[in-house]
Design a protein that fits this description.
It contains eight helices and no strands. The protein is mostly helical and 183 residues long.
Length: 183
């Protein structure tokens, strides 16, 4: 649950502050909005593809892969400009959002007798509390700068990644590797 709160925080901070950042980088508001829409659409594609991949390689494995994949592309976005920056932003959105549906699936598997509760926790509580985290980015933006607030977005992603590694959920890849062996 905490990993999903942290991921939601990063998602909503990106949605909240990236349009303003794009405008400060010289994009008009309409173009910034189109870029954000494309980022969200790439996130939808990420959820569909991420769900399929997690079915094959494992949910926990994919969550770690998706969260880890988002961070470098976020920083590449800031280190580049023009079309390269836009492409890296779309890839960031793809990776970060790809973990959303997989997290819901994990919650259903962890609470199979309480799927409604699991859904409520992941779709209600995690997203709600994650949205509250955006206030922290707002304070950073007010006290320091918009770039500083954006620069902290990978922090909750990395924290979520670390929490996923210790989540009491099975590693599918390890189960396959040691299947049939007595340990």
């Amino acid at each position: 649950m905490t990993a999903s709160v942290l991921r939601a925080w990063a998602v909503f901070a990106a949605i909240t502050f990236l349009p303003m950042y794009l405008v400060t980088q010289g994009y008009d508001l309409m173009t910034a909005s189109i870029i954000m829409t494309l980022m969200l659409l790439s996130g939808v594609a990420g959820q569909i593809i991420g769900g399929q991949i997690s079915d094959r390689i494992g949910r926990k494995e994919f969550m770690i892969f998706g969260l880890a994949g988002a961070v470098p592309f976020f920083y590449l976005f800031f280190a580049s400009s023009g079309i390269i920056a836009i492409i890296t932003l779309l890839i960031f959105g793809f990776f970060l959002w790809s973990t959303f549906a997989v997290a819901v699936a994990i919650s259903h598997e962890l609470l199979p007798q309480n799927v409604g509760l699991a859904s409520g926790m992941m779709l209600g509580l995690a997203i709600g509390f994650g949205g509250l985290g955006v206030a922290v980015n707002g304070i950073i933006a007010d006290q320091y700068s918009l770039a500083a607030a954006l620069g902290t977005i990978p922090v909750p992603i990395i924290a979520a990644l670390l929490l996923m590694t210790v989540l009491p959920y099975p590693w599918k890849s390890l189960k396959r590797r040691f299947a049939g062996r007595i340990i």
